[in-house]
Amino acid sequence: MFDKVFWTFPSCVEAFKHCKPFVSIDGMHLYGRYDGVLLIAMAQDGNINILSIASAIVVSKSIESWSFFLTNLRCHVTPQEVLLVISDRSQAIKATFSADDSGWHPPRAFHAYCIRHMAAKFMTHFKLVILNTTYSPSKARYEWYMDALRGVSSGITDWAGHFNKEIWLQHCDCDRRFGHMTTNLSECITSVLKGTRYLPISAIVCITYEHLQKLLVTKGREAQSQLAAGNCFSQRLMASIEKNKEGISKMCVTHCDRQASVFVVEELESFMGWSQGSFCVSLSAGTCDCGFFQSLHYPCCHALAGCAAASIELAPYVHPIYRQEAVFKVYEMEFPPIPDESLWPECYGTMLYPNPLMCQKTTR
Ligand SMILES: [Zn+2]
Fold this sequence. Notes:
The chain has helices at 10-16, 63-76, 91-98, 115-119, 124-135, 139-152, 154-160, 165-168, 184-192, 201-228, 235-245, 292-296, 301-309, 324-330; strands spanning 5-7, 22-29, 37-44, 50-58, 83-87, 109-113, 251-255, 262-267, 278-282, 287-288. The chain is of the alpha+beta class. The strands form two sheets. A six-stranded mixed β-sheet has the order 1-4-3-2-5-6, with helices on both faces. The chain has a four-stranded antiparallel β-sheet with strand order 7-8-9-10. Helix 6 crosses helix 7 (154-160). The radius of gyration is 23 Å and the shape is globular. Residues 279-311 form the SWIM-type domain. GO terms for molecular function: zinc ion binding.
């Protein structure tokens, strides 16, 4: 009798090796003849394209179900060290990560909360300040927003104080989030798969295969043409770098070492809103006082000002995940075509029957 199923594809396992080192996980209820929950894990490449790398259908969002999904995910798809998982604040997920044999303990893996889920219970005004607080990539900016939050509600700052800082604050996450503070990735694919929630399980597996097959062809072709054009970095990275370059003519750079690696960069005019005036940049350490250099793993506007003042190439200071070769590698291993069912070999395995306990009690 059917109980639960986990599936992934070899191309997904290969693709994840070249994606950002984090996964976003989420679950959604099925609405077909049988009850159940579809759990998914999502990843993102260095050109902000997203892809689902593993799925499961389970009875409910229980500890047992999440444990089944996360154990298989860890064993078969994401065995990498120092991996981050972003999820909502589900107690079942939290309990799964805490289990002694989960394989998801620091320093091998880390867990972070989706900030949108955390802030959801607050009114719009508080929500904005909370989001700005959590997104702050530097301690100085975080403290500025915390003071603002304290001014409007000490209750909220007390509530925030109950959480471990590294689980919800960008400036405390040791730069593992790559700027991702929410489970938006998984919610994107949730909307792609919305229509499949009424279908039988075999059809859902088939649709995820076809969706990924199409995605890898399309994105693989795009990445290949970018490589052929001689582009070193992904298009989105280059767009962000161009944006960061906009303000550097209004910055004053002071060299602080003979190697041209450390600078103090002063903003003569406020750029991109909030400013603290001057920022220490270390190119070799990949850090800036603004926090964006280390959080996003590519040079912020201050680091770019330092590079420009010293006539230094920025390429060594960009994370390899943003290189066009890495983006191409995500889509390199394609999905083979599935032969017509009449050509499939005879199956001698166990026959599965639907679980009557999972049958929907009423038609929704
Ligand atoms: Zn900076």
